[in-house]
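User: I've been going back and forth on whether these two constructs are worth ordering. Before I decide, could you fold them both?

Assistant: Sure. I'll take them in the order you sent them. The first construct and its structure tokens:
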Amino acid sequence: MVATKRKLDTFPVVSIILWVVVAILALVWSIPFIFMVFTSLKTQSDIFSTPAFAPPPELAWENYAESIERGNLLNAISNTLIISLIKVPLGLLVASLAAFAISRLRLPYPKIILGFFVLGTMIPIQVALGPLFHIILKLNLLNTKIGVILPYIAFGIPYQIFTLYGFFSVIPREIDESARVDGATNLQIYWRIILPLARPALAALFVLDFVATWNEFAIALVILQEQATRTVPLALQGYNTQFSSSYGPLNAAIVITVIPVLIVYLLFQRYFVQGIFAGAVKG
């Protein structure tokens, strides 16, 4: 009884310590974003006359208007949003179908098939840029959205298949057998049973893949060479020359491009933590 009471007494202390540590880590991770927001709202003179992390004396909202007007930022955001909203769901669909086939169907040598996909996660994108440019050029897809969507899907699905395979393997196979007894086909089992149960993993992969697609630079730099087709990372690279000494508009552009990613995360945060560890028990 005494030992149990001591454990109960120490529990609030441990909980408080953990919350303090989490708060400190959250503050440390938010420091760069706070710096960007403050800098984006300062005039050029305020940036050099006030401390870096000091709030702006006056809110210089004109920095945001200038960054949008001079940097063609809305066009870049539109291009990136279209590419992301096509690539991410399509890539998850292909990856989930492949993971379902490997984990739930009676395929010969499923571990070997999975191993080939795992090898795909080990290929650096930089190694494939030369052959990729040649293929896209031959297909006449240079400076097109489909020209970057196809490589994005190809490089993204190996990791997604590996993750979803682990999650699908945890789901009891008795569910499949019961559904087949009731006359369900493999496609019906996949769509009506497996995908709803895998919602946390799919949500986590959606957020991670959306962020990766939104921030991808190397492939976009090689394929999208015209200003009208540029994505957000390429547009921000252009800001380094246009606003090399205008730090207010530059940071305003960065803040604007972060907002869509934050919105996507907030929409899926309910499943993100649960889904990020999905399939860790069995693989």
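The second construct, handled the same way:
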Amino acid sequence: MHLSRRLVIAASIAILLLPGRIAFAAAPDEKDRVLRQLDIAGKNFRSTSADFEFVTVSTQPIYEKDVQKGVSYYKREGHAFQFAAHIREVNGKPVPKVVVFLDGTVKLYEKMIDQVTTFTRYSQYQSWFMLGFGASGKELEEKWEIKYLGPEKIDGVMTEKLEMVAKDPAISKNLPKVTLWMDTERGVSLKQIFDQGQGQSRTCYYTNIKVNHPLPADAFTFKTDSKTVYVNR
């Protein structure tokens, strides 16, 4: 699967409507209320760590499901943003990998084959990685068309559900829609669904979220050795 479809630090399919569910009609000022709450949270955001489960589903040409688990880290200083996903297992088996986004560059370290792959053309996708972690309401409005879908409780936490469509055609081509469940008080998302089109989607679940706590020294790094292979793409 193409990396741009696998990397989005969230993923998934259309919203399921349960029988008898009452449609939520948002007042025009409700979306603005939520975005202004994210403005406040964004000003206070410095870092986050969270356990994650990324469930990637592909239905074309055949059904495939890929489940990755690990820990993610986010750090922001002004406009400088860093993201890392330390993957521990894939489909229940130990498959250690590290994905790091820094200064518009994505690096993927695959420990089992001792290889680092560097992708240098990903600066335009920073808004993907920031989604739900540190982005202010104003920043989201600049990059996304936003629809407010109402409140919903996730793991006992009341969240605000947002549907996002990228304003950049190059991004919306590969990512038609994103749905977020935001804890607006902390400025983090507990769940993300990335509809990647062509029968592919990713659902991201975040638990054990810690905001503005000290991050590990190796949060945005990985260990290599003299035998590590380096590839640029």
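Notes on the second construct follow. The chain is about 15% helix and 50% strand. The CA atoms of residues 26 and 220 lie 39 Å apart.
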